[in-house]
């Protein structure tokens, strides 16, 4: 008898032993890295309507209870929001923009730690 595609065994093999939640969490957290955003743009993924739709779908991470699982919610959600804008998806191909975003993140981190 064929295995039900919704069974835990089928899901595990389909996602390489990880849950969809774990895979999406890892991916959405990678969006905090502006150099990764630049890489996505250089691979033309940010021009792909299906990928752009996936980025829109991932906005659920900005709401409870999901937001509590993000290690770096500030930059992760900021970049996820920016990726909803076509202009940003075009502009992030610029290494200078990626560098500026990285510098902004470092500055914000330093300022946040000053308050400790």
UniProtKB/TrEMBL annotation:
Keywords: Activator, Nucleus, Transcription, Transcription regulation. It comes from the Eukaryota. Signal peptide: none annotated. The keyword Nucleus applies. GO terms for cellular component: mediator complex. GO terms for biological process: regulation of DNA-templated transcription. It is found in: Nucleus. InterPro entries: Med31_sf, Mediator_Med31. Component of the Mediator complex, a coactivator involved in the regulated transcription of nearly all RNA polymerase II-dependent genes. Mediator functions as a bridge to convey information from gene-specific regulatory proteins to the basal RNA polymerase II transcription machinery. Mediator is recruited to promoters by direct interactions with regulatory proteins and serves as a scaffold for the assembly of a functional preinitiation complex with RNA polymerase II and the general transcription factors. Component of the Mediator complex. This is Mediator of RNA polymerase II transcription subunit 31. It comes from Xylaria multiplex.
């Amino acid at each position: 008898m064929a295995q039900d595609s919704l069974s835990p065994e089928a899901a595990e093999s389909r996602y390489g032993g990880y849950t969809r939640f774990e895979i999406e969490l890892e991916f959405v957290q990678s969006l905090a890295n502006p150099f990764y955003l630049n890489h996505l743009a250089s691979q033309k993924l940010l021009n792909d309507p299906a990928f752009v739709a996936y980025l829109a779908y991932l906005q659920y991470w900005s709401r409870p209870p999901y937001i509590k699982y993000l290690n770096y919610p500030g930059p992760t959600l900021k970049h996820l929001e920016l990726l909803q804008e076509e202009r940003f998806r075009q502009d992030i191909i610029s290494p200078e923009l990626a560098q500026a975003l990285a510098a902004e993140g470092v500055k914000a981190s330093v300022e946040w730690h000053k308050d400790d």
